[in-house]
Every structure is written in structure tokens, then in C-alpha cells.
Amino acid sequence: MSEFLQFTLSGIISGAIYALVGLGFSLIYRVSGVMNLAQGQFYAWAAFITYSLTSYFHLQIGVAVVLSVVAVAILGILMDRLALAPARSADLTALLIITLGISTLLEGLSEIIWGTNPLAPPAFGADQPFRAFGIAILPQDLWVIGGVIVIVLCLSFILTRTYTGKALTAVSEKREAAMLMGIDASKTRIIAFAASATVGGIAGILAGPITFVTFESGLSIGLKGFVAAVLGGVGNPFGAVVGGLLLGLAESYSSAYVSSLFSSATAFVVLLLFLLIRSLTDKGSQSLGSGSRPAFFAEFRLPSVIISVALAFLVAGVAISGNESYMSVLLTAGIFAIAAIGLHLLKGITGVLSLGQGAFMAIGGFCVGVLTVKLHVDPLFATVVAIVLGMVTAAIIGFITLRLSGYILAIATLALSIIVEQVALGWQPVTGGASGIPGIPSFSAFGFVFTGISLYLLVWALVVVSGLVAYNLARSNIGRALKVIRQDETVAATSGIPVALYKVIVFVIAGALASLAGALYAFSSNFIEPGMVGSSTSILLLVMVAVGGETGAVGSVVGAVILMLLPAVFNALSTTELVLTGFLLVLVMLFLPNGIIGSLEEVYQSFSHRKKSAKEKVEAVV
Amino acid sequence: MKKVGVALLSLVFLLASCGTSAASTTSASHTPLKIGLLYEATGAFSYFGIDSLNAAQLWVKQVNAKGGVAGHKVQLITYNTATNPTQAVEGYKYLASQHVAAIVGPGSLAEFEAVAPIATSGPVLYTTCGICIPKGLLQFAGVILSGPLEAYALSQLHKAGINKVAFLSTNDATGETSYPPFAEAAKALGMDITATQYFDTTSVDVTTQLTKIMATHPQAIDIWTAGEPTVVAFQGLHALGINVPVITCDCNLIPSLLGLLQKRGILPSQLYIPITPDLAYNTLPSSYPEKAKIESFDKAYEAQFGSQPGLSSGTTYDALSLIALGVEKSHSLNPVKIAEAMQQIHGYVGLQGIYNFSPTQHRGVGESDAVLVKIVNGKPEYASL
């Protein structure tokens, strides 16, 4: 019994930490519609600042806490005013990527300021554990649990009993109506960001003495908070608390009673099931975060043609130069471009925000790894099997997530990515675990082995084929139907479009392309391991599509090339690389919310319109 | 429109201003000896990547001040892998395209496994990874493999009368590669493994795993984790009041971190770390032939960087010294000839032990070079159980 209580306490402590981060997510989402992936940075920065103030400036813990909370509240306001408020009308993917850019920037800055070793603010008071009800408890654990309770009570009071709280609720429910009633929505938004950062900061100060923090802690704890917020019902701060506790308990009980190797996977399976079951009963939860979407432009206009020709010259030029270093970068870019084109079909054409493309790359990569290395299957046949397996899995995933969209679908597909990554890590006899599968042969077909320049040309030929498939699909009747689905599923359904069937078809095509990319990645590296195709790959693919421009296949290719070139270009900058990468992401999504190609198309369209209207004016005068 | 223009101009400016990724630290003489460094400035292994860079810069400065290696000035070209296998491959190819004779690094298993298949021709590859197995003529490895380190620590615990041990690690490459040698060594010593538990690297609490471990009544626990997860595990030990001897990975011997853990009262009171001799710092007995060299290195490092050398400082410094020895012995900058000469190195006293290579043994140090330290007041002290 005492063991069970100890497992429960462990789950509650982890859950309380996730809950505090999730609370911050919900507060911001409630007012701004932004899912702030930088939320975890408030946690890390408050812990770091408190550490510095107490260790180097020898301030009293109480003073240090107040100063740290004020500092992160200012950080939250700056984050909103400088990056998010100017992009308030942007698509939810653009907003997500801006917050991811801010998170990367802050992560880089904290590495420069505080280094790479784990640090922690001091514990509040006594630090020796005591026993009660047969279990060991740390005093700081009680501070964390107490913190959650106090914050929930305070928020409850503020949201229901104060003018500010009521204004927050009003703006979150009916922004325009609230503004008509004299509520300053902009001020309310500032308060929400400051409050959210404060809650995140308090979480870091309370839990930091237990968990310690490194410059990388923000994103990982932020993702857990993101899951907690979605699990509890985005926008509902108290739901985030329940979500956090559920996640913490699921992790603890699965470690205790299922397998410690698969604890995270089990927790995410629970999350996925929970979301699916809830989607069947709660109609309202399925469409969170639909927001505005980047405009469509007539396919393949002049800017796309120019960029495509430039890309072709770049690819050919590097091939002719024979520079192995550049060829290697562009080979990887080509492989990722194939998977990104699949995501372009999903996100750009159909409006399905998927963070699961990395999972299909993993399926493709590990499938060819196992088949060629362990079963000595011919690489071409192994690739066909990998693509078929990817398509079947995608059909199943597409079918079971039909009722999900927006952030809910994003988190469900991200959960899928994490589950696949965890299974690849834990299923060592088959996948090789964290060591992966080395010794994968080079790709060969009909006796010809593709290595070096031949593999490079093959990959880029496949990029062109994938791009043409996407282009033709977008222009077909199905493509037009998909664009209607993207704009409004209800309208599409009432127009007689088989929404479910078409969405599954797009999932299958995207799954096939990602599996092909995963297989090529494994063949080109002669190696595959879970980290190469994990959940971070899914996020990277989304960033590629958004940076390049989601509504055209060329944009996905441009995004893949830029994102693969960035590390090489910024390499000499060492630790400042993260800061610049984050800054650039924010900059691109802020000023080019339609992505690079989308923005060029926009400029071209605006120029064409002006020219046309000028011509019309001249004709009218004549 | 204006905003778009500004953004595009900024993008072009940023890309243009950043230049390429080479960081040359010396001016080349007639035929410089070019050596590449694949290090981790960012990412999960960045906590020792900078140690590696510092040591390499110090070595190059010292060697060039003495006229270089066999008359060749040394030119160091660095590449940050960000602890990412794909970037490690890009970095290897970039350094190879710069015609380096040898590359030191990378430091993680995934990076090495990604680079190893293409490192069968081209420069010598000397990895600083403690769990990687070099393959073929051109690949070498520094630092004692984690398996022999664990075996050495277990043998010391066994000597002290401990026969029941438990294992706790992360569900990543660290846990996966450290369990088999742990199990093998325990079996060879006739010790019982009472429990084996894993946790995710992003976990914030592992008291569940430790509760399960303590239910099996081990006399000692092997917590073979690296970085932040180690702190989470130690916090769990502290929370549950567990006071059995703990052995942990050499990669946790970070003086500033251990000092902070000591200050916060969560450092296990009986914490032992099996390490290479350089990390025992000035507590190493005079009987060790490496002692004088270590003292001189520590002094020079502290003078230049204002801190003690870190985890992979000694590995990198030794790697560069051994490559230089290969160049001197072979009188050549040809990687194959350097590698062939390095295979013949015997009895070289480095910072991390006495190196003995052969055509079948490309990791020059092993269990016989390991020492055990006990962490006392947050500082390592040479220990013999």
C-alpha cells in the first residue's frame, strides 16, 4: 500500500509541475488563441534568475523570487508586444512557429548566460525529507502542491470576482462584444501574458529546486505543459491542472506497473485514447485553433517558377562542383523536402495540422533498416514494403483522428510521433534501441547501387516527382475539394464532398511520402536511430513547410533547403547559433506569415493588380 | 510590401554575414597539419563539448609555440555538431573537404554511428565517445569504455563486501549501452542484480523507479546516467532517504555541478565514480606515471581558461597528442600512414592512462587505467575500497 502511495505522490508531483506549466498555456490561449511553445522558458528563466540572484547577488530568497517573477512577467509582455501581437491575425501554424522561434532564441540566450550544467534555485526552508502515511515526502514537494492549490484559488477568484478576470473571460469568449462594452482587449491581452509568465515562473521557482534546470529544460517541460493543457481542455485553466495530474499519474503508474522503459509511451497512448474518446463525445473540442489561414495563390506563378529554376541551378551546380560537403547538406534537404511535400498536402492544401510526419519517417527508416540488415531483403523491395507500411499506418491514423482538428489534432499526432520514438527506443531486439541499426546498405535497384552523386540525383528526381504529384493533385477535382475542406469542413460536407474519405486519402499520400523519405534517409546515412526521426523531426518538418510557404509544393522544398542550410551557415557561431536560428524563425514568420514563397506570390499578385488597375484607368481615360 | 522587403533584406544580410563554418586558430605555414574537431557546442552533450574545444585550442597553442608537429604548424578547424547525428555527418564531410589529416570527435554514440560508415576512407577519426566502438584502420577512440569503467567500479564494491546491486538508467543510448557490461561484470563477480529500472530523460521525478528498486533491498545502486537525469535521480535518492553506496557515470564528474549538489544537500553521501586518472585531479597518488603530466596540463588549462579542465578535456588533449605522434612517426600527413603509425604506439603516457594500440585494438586505454574517486564535500578524492 505504501508503495502505491509513493507512486501516487510521484505522479502528483510530476503532474503538479506539468499543471503549472499547462495553466500558463491555457491563460494565454484563452485570450490570444496562441499556443505558446515558449511557455516552458518562463519556467527555466525564473529558476535561472532566482539562482543567480541568490548565488551571485546573495539576495534573500523572498526578494529574489519577487524580482524573478517580475522579470519573467516583463519577458512575457515583451514576447507578446514584439512578436505575437503584431502577428495576431496570422495562421495558427505561423503563431506556433513564432513561439517555437522565441523558445529557441531564449534557449540559446540561457545557454550563453548560464552555461550547460544543471542549476537550481534554493529550496524554500527545510530540505530534509520526512515520512507520513508510510511514504517519504520532501518539504519542497508540498510547496509545489501548495503552489498549484494557491494559484488555482487565486485564479478562480480573479477570473470570477474581479473586473480584470471578467474582462479576460469576456475577451476570450467574444472579443468584439467585449470591446464594444468598453473592455480594452489589448490591455487584457498584456495582463494575460504577464499572468501566464508569472504562473510559469512560479512553477520554475517552486519545482526548480527539485528538478534543476538546464538551458534545454524549457522546451521539454513546455511540451509536457502543452500536453496537460490539451488533455484538460485548451483554454480552461482548471482543466490544465486536471490534465497535468492525469499525465503525471499516467507516467508514474506506467513506470510502476507496465514498464519503466515505455513509461512516456504509455502516458502518450493514454493521452491519444483520451483525445479520441473525447472527440466522439465532445463536438466542440475538435476544432480548437482553426484561426485564419494563409491565402491561396494561383499555382506556379512567376515567383514559384523563378525559385524552382534557381533551386534547379543550385542542385545542379553543387552536383557539377562535386563538393561533398554541400552535396551532403542538399541530399538531406532533398530527403526532408519529400516528407515536407507530404505535409504541404496535409496542412497547406487540406488544412490538417499534423505533427506526425516524423513518425512515418521513422516507420520508413526502421522498416528498411530491419528488412535489409536483419532479413537481408533487397533494398528496392524493402523500400516498397516501407511505403506500403507507412500508407497502411497512415490510413489507420487518418481514420481514427478524423474528428480531430486544429491544436487537438496537432497534439494527437505529436503523441503518435512520441509513441513511435519511444517504441523505437524500447524495442531493442528489433530496432536496435537507442543505438539504432547500423550497417544499412546503400539503396540499390536492378543491380545499380546509388551512392554519392547517383543517390543525390535520385533523391532530387524524387523531389521533382513528389512535387509534380502534389501539384497535379492540388489542381485536380480532389484538390479543389480538399481546399474547400481546408476552408470549412461543414461547407465541404454539405456540398457533397466526402470529407472523411478525402482526408484519409491525403493522410495516406503524406504517409507514403514521409515513409519514402525515412527509407532514403536510412539508406543515405547507412544508419537509423530514433533521434533522427523522432518528434523533433515532426516539428522541424512543420517549420520547413511554414517557412517555405505551405500552399505550394515549391515552398516546402525551399523551406527544407533553408532549414538544412541554416546549421551549416551558422555553425561558426557556436553557442550563438540557437539565438540566431530562433531570431530568424520569428523574423520570417512575423514579416512573411505566408512563408517565403507565399509572400513572394503576394508581392507579385499585388504588383500584377496594380499594373492591371493602372492599365484599366488609362483605358478608361482614353 | 515594405515589411516583406525588410525581412528579405535582413535574411540575406544575416545569411551573408555569418559566413562559413571554419574557425581557424592558427595561420598555416608551408604545409600545415590540418586537424578537424567535431564538438558539441549545443544540444544534449554540450556540457562537455566546450571542454573539448578549450583543450584543443590549448594543445594547438602549446604545440605551435614549440614549432608545430614535425615541422608542420597545426591548423585547427572546428565544427559544432549540436549533438545531432545529421549535423555530425555534415561536419565530417565539411572537415574532409578541407583536407584535414585527422578529426577528433564526435562525442555521442548516435553521432559516431552516423559518421562511422563514411569514415572508412579520408581523415583519421578519433572519437571522444566513451561508448563507441571504432571500426577499421582509420578509426580510433579515447577515454576508457564505459563497460570496463562499470566493471572496475563493481569490482571495487565487491571487494568491499557488496553482493547485491541494482541498476537505474535512462531509456536512451546511455542506459542501453551501459546495462549489458554492468550485467556481465556483475555475473562475473557473482553479484546479484536485484532490480533494473529506466526513466525518460525528460522525467522530473523518479521516486517511482527508486521505490521499486529499494523494494528489492540492494546494497548499492549503479545510476548510470548523464547530466540533468542524474540530478533527478539523486533528488529521488534524497527524497526517499536512500543511503546506500551509489556509483555513477564518469560523465557526471563536473566539479561545479557536484559542488552545487553538495550545497543543496542532495549529493549521495557514498558516491563513487570510476574515471580516467586525469579526473582525479591533484588527489591522484604519486605512484601514477600520469601524475606529472596531469598537473602540468591542469595548470596550463586553468591559466588560460580560469577553470579546471572538464570531462573531455583530457580525452581531446590526448587524442591530439597521439595524432601528432602518428604524424611524427610516419613522417607523413597521409591519414592511412598516420593511422598505421598510431597502431604501433605502445606505452605512451597520456593524461588518461598509458596508451597501448595495436592493429586490433584502437582504444588505447582500458580497465587497468581506471581509478575510483569518492565525492567528498562535492570534490573528487582518489579512493580505494
* Helix content, binned percent of chain B: 40-55%
Number of strands of chain B: 14
SS class of chain B: alpha/beta
The fraction of residues assigned to DSSP E strands of chain B is 15-25%
Q: How much of the residues of chain A is beta strand, in percent? A: under 5%
CATH architectural type of the largest domain in chain A: Orthogonal Bundle
How much is the average pLDDT of chain A?
87
Strand order of the largest sheet of chain A: 1-2
Give me the side-by-side strand order of the main sheet of chain B: 7-6-8-9-10-13-14
- Which fold name corresponds to the CATH topology of the largest domain in chain A? ABC transporter involved in vitamin B12 uptake, BtuC
- Class computed from helices, strands and strand pairing of chain A: mainly alpha
| Major sheet characteristics of chain A | 2 strands, antiparallel
Overall morphology of chain B: globular
Q: Secondary-structure element order of chain B, as H and E?
A: HEHEHEHEEHEHEHEHEHEHHHEEEE
Biggest pleated sheet of chain B = 7 strands, mixed
How many helices of chain B? The count is: 12
Number of helical elements of chain A: 25
Average predicted local confidence, pLDDT of chain B: 88
- Span of the ends, CA to CA of chain B: 73 Å
Helix percentage of chain A: over 70%
What radius of gyration of chain B results from the CA coordinates?
A: 22 Å
Explained architecture:
- The complex is a heterodimer of chains A (622) and B (385).
- Chain A has 622 residues and is mainly alpha-helical.
- In chain A, helix 1 runs antiparallel to helix 8 (185-211).
- Chain A has two domains: 2-257, ABC transporter involved in vitamin B12 uptake, BtuC; 302-604, Orthogonal Bundle (ABC transporter involved in vitamin B12 uptake, BtuC), CATH 1.10.3470.
- Helices cover 76% and strands 3% of the residues of chain A.
- Chain A has helices at residues 2-32, 39-55, 61-84, 92-114, 139-161, 163-173, 175-180, 185-211, 217-232, 237-257, 263-281, 302-321, 324-349, 357-374, 379-400, 406-426, 428-431, 452-475, 477-487, 489-494, 499-525, 535-548, 553-570, 577-591, 595-621; strands at residues 130-132, 135-137, 437-438, 443-445, 448-450, 527-528.
- Chain A has a two-stranded antiparallel ribbon with strand order 1-2.
- Helix content of chain B is 41%, strand content 18%.
- Chain B has helices spanning 2-18, 46-65, 85-97, 109-115, 146-159, 173-188, 207-214, 228-240, 255-263, 291-305, 313-330, 335-343, and strands at 33-39, 74-80, 102-104, 124-127, 139-141, 164-170, 192-199, 220-224, 246-248, 271-275, 346-349, 354-356, 371-376, 379-383.
- Chain B is of the alpha/beta class.
- The interface between A and B is large, with 90 and 82 residues.
